[in-house]
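Example (one chain per record):
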Amino acid sequence: MRVTEERMASGELPIIYVARHGETAWTLTGQHTGRTDLPLTEAGERNARRLGERLKGLIFAKVFTSPLKRAVRTCELAGFGGVAQIDCNLMEWDYGEYEGLTGAEIRAKRPDWQLFRDGCPGGESPQQVAARADQVVREVREVQGDVLLFTSGHFIRVLASRWIGIEPTVNARSFMLSTASLSALGYEQDLSRPVIRLWNDTHHVAL
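Predicted structure:
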C-alpha cells in the first residue's frame, strides 16, 4: 500500500498506528502470554474485524505484524493480511519461567516483582525488550509514509516509551492497553519531536 501523492505533497508528518491483537483465552484469565501461540477467542475475532472498520480509509506505506498467530490473525481479520510483513521484533515479551502465570501467582512468590523493572527469569530483561523496540523505531522511521503495526500489549508499552525517549523500566507500566485497541505514534511540528498522538482507542470495539 503506497502513500498517495496528495499526502506526500502536503508535507504531513508520518503516523505510526499500533494495533494490539484481539482477545485470547489467557487475556480473560490474566495469564502472561508471551511466546505461547494462542488463537483469538470468538470475541477476539469479532473485535479484530471491528478494528478493520476503524482503520478503513487509511493508507499505509508499510504494514508489519508480529509472527504470533494472535497478531497475524488480527491483522488478517482487519483486512491487511495480504500486504503485511512479518517482523520478529514485534513479538511479545518473553516471560520465561513466568509464562502462563498471573501477576498474583508471580507476586505470591516474589512480592516486589515488577515486569518493566525486573524482567523474567529465563526470559527477557527490560533492556532486551527495549532493544527490540528501538529496532522497530529505527525501521519505521525509515519508511516514507504512515505505518501500521500489529503486536502485543506489553511490547507496545515499551515501544511507546522508546518512541518518546523515556525510560521503560520506570514509565511503561503506566500505559494501559485493551485488546483490539488502536494507538498512534507521531510527531509535533517536525521529526525531532516524537509524540503519542492517540492511546488505547477502543471506540470501535464498543460498537
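Caption: Confidence is low (pLDDT under 50) at residues 1-9.
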